[in-house]
From TrEMBL, chains A, B:
<feature type="domain" description="Nudix hydrolase">
    <location>
        <begin position="13"/>
        <end position="151"/>
    </location>
</feature>
<dbReference type="InterPro" id="IPR015797">
    <property type="entry name" value="NUDIX_hydrolase-like_dom_sf"/>
</dbReference>
<dbReference type="GO" id="GO:0016787">
    <property type="term" value="F:hydrolase activity"/>
</dbReference>
<feature type="region of interest" description="Disordered">
    <location>
        <begin position="224"/>
        <end position="253"/>
    </location>
</feature>
<dbReference type="InterPro" id="IPR020084">
    <property type="entry name" value="NUDIX_hydrolase_CS"/>
</dbReference>
<protein>
    <submittedName>
        <fullName>NUDIX domain-containing protein</fullName>
    </submittedName>
</protein>
<dbReference type="InterPro" id="IPR054105">
    <property type="entry name" value="WHD_NrtR"/>
</dbReference>
<dbReference type="Pfam" id="PF00293">
    <property type="entry name" value="NUDIX"/>
</dbReference>
<keyword id="KW-0378">Hydrolase</keyword>
<dbReference type="InterPro" id="IPR020476">
    <property type="entry name" value="Nudix_hydrolase"/>
</dbReference>
<dbReference type="Pfam" id="PF21906">
    <property type="entry name" value="WHD_NrtR"/>
</dbReference>
<dbReference type="InterPro" id="IPR000086">
    <property type="entry name" value="NUDIX_hydrolase_dom"/>
</dbReference>
<comment type="similarity">
    <text>Belongs to the Nudix hydrolase family.</text>
</comment>
<dbReference type="InterPro" id="IPR036390">
    <property type="entry name" value="WH_DNA-bd_sf"/>
</dbReference>
<dbReference type="InterPro" id="IPR036388">
    <property type="entry name" value="WH-like_DNA-bd_sf"/>
</dbReference>
Length: 253, 253
DNA sequence: GCAAAAGTGTTCCACCTACACCCATGT
DNA sequence: ACATGGGTGTAGGTGGAACACTTTTGC
């Protein structure tokens, strides 16, 4: 059950916030939306955007509201926003007990820099795997949240059609493939990728006459739209995360 | 960021709770641990076990504590406990604002009935897919939480070694297969299942001399222990969830 | 012509599927 | 004997990995 006899003011109150890991692809690299903290603790450090739940607001609504505020995007309604998990360790905010519901969001591209609503500064910074990189350690436990979010996104690409959420309304298969390559940090065979995507009904649908040049050179590529499908059967697995040195039975490879 | 200028008593306080969907296998059926509510709202109805976060306790700790209280099990430390997601819709508890972190837990078997800590009554009831079943609609939004938990468990069986968490320390491959069959509601080929499991290094390891009779009849089966591996590569996919009638694209819209 | 990217074809192999078949045990 | 479940063997199909090859553009 959730609540029985309970004096709602008996305990030190919990603050409930949302934290957002917002990813985008920019010039062939994965970027993450960060804000610079204006005051203590962690003043001057980068942090994930986020904020408090309003009294009559679900976490998903708060997350989407924050997403709109921090990115400056108008059409936030259609963006992919996914609950990641909740972080509730007692010491994660030195001031008080803060329980934070973390979300992962995907944005096609963010040409506009975003005005920091209440933050000192906000920026898209290139994502670095090792939690270090161009922005240093993040405030609070946000390095961990960010790593969890990246892992989740990478995993979801395998068995969902999520990759189109990184793309503009019209995109080429090369651009779609680049989403996988950048998020996974691997290279994929263009031919096999193409077949795999086209073999999945509802993943993408071709725009009849359209075509576009991609990198300046090369044959113009056909344009596609996102299809209606959500899941990928069979999945598109990323190449072995662990090499697996040996095993009790190793047929040939 | 998480907190800026903020009067911690300015808002109506949030209560933070954990709710647990605890599954087990009993006599060949999937069971779920439920408690009967003693007071309003939803007095007399069944609900998921759960409770409040203590002031210095992470959600995971609270969940494990509740798990121990409600199941009566002593060795709760080794059980599989996994954060599902957080439910925060404003109206989900009529009395006050309750944000609930839901967990899914797997128990090998529960021979002992559990003493209800603070609940009127607690019981293992056979899980029903359609949220109805032997226990009727659950209190609050627990039907939804339970459905989400079942879906999560079913999905995780595909690509993790989680199934051993349902089994006692020593088990036969037939028992392990039954886990999949019961959770998925399908039948699996014993021969292929066997090969698949044994081909995955670290999924199970055989106990050299041991064997046991299973259903009274039949050849005694070899006994296995859970191995150290966590993930399943390649995954063990359940038979097609959607038949997908026809058409190369545009299934829904 | 050359480089680069799109797009097509083809081969090999891992793995999944399905069944057939033997083994050990209780009734 | 026979039913039942454990365990082994094997043939066929699907799909992914790897790679050769053609096409269309810019330089």
């Amino acid at each position: 059950m959730s609540v029985q006899g309970y004096d709602k003011y008996a305990y030190e109150p919990f603050a409930v916030t949302v934290d957002l890991a917002v990813f985008t692809l920019r010039s062939g690299r994965l970027h993450i939306l960060l804000v610079e903290r204006g005051q203590e603790p962690y003043a001057g450090q980068w942090a994930l955007p986020g904020g408090f739940l309003e009294p009559d607001e679900a976490a998903e609504e708060a997350a989407r509201r924050e997403l709109a505020e921090e990115t400056g995007l108008a059409d936030v309604a259609g963006l992919h926003l996914e609950q990641l998990r909740t972080y509730s360790e007692p010491g994660r905010d030195p001031r008080m007990r803060v329980v934070s519901v973390a979300f992962a969001a995907l944005v096609p591209d963010a040409p506009q820099a975003q005005g920091g609503g209440d933050a000192a500064r906000a920026a898209w910074l290139p994502y670095e795997e090792g939690a270090g990189g161009a922005y240093g350690p993040l405030a609070f436990d946000h390095d961990r949240i960010l790593a969890d979010a990246h892992e989740r996104i990478g995993g979801k690409l395998e068995y969902t059609c999520l990759a189109t959420a990184f793309c503009p309304p019209e995109f080429t298969l090369g651009e779609l493939r680049q989403v996988y390559e950048v998020v996974w940090g691997t290279e994929l065979d263009p031919a096999n990728f193409r077949r795999k995507v086209l073999a999945t009904p509802g993943f993408v649908e071709q725009i009849p006459g359209a075509s576009r040049l991609t990198g300046g050179r090369g044959k113009p590529a056909a344009l596609y739209r996102a299809g209606g499908a959500g899941s990928l059967h069979p999945p598109l697995l990323r190449p072995a995360p662990e090499p697996v040195p040996d095993a009790k039975k190793g047929p040939s490879s």
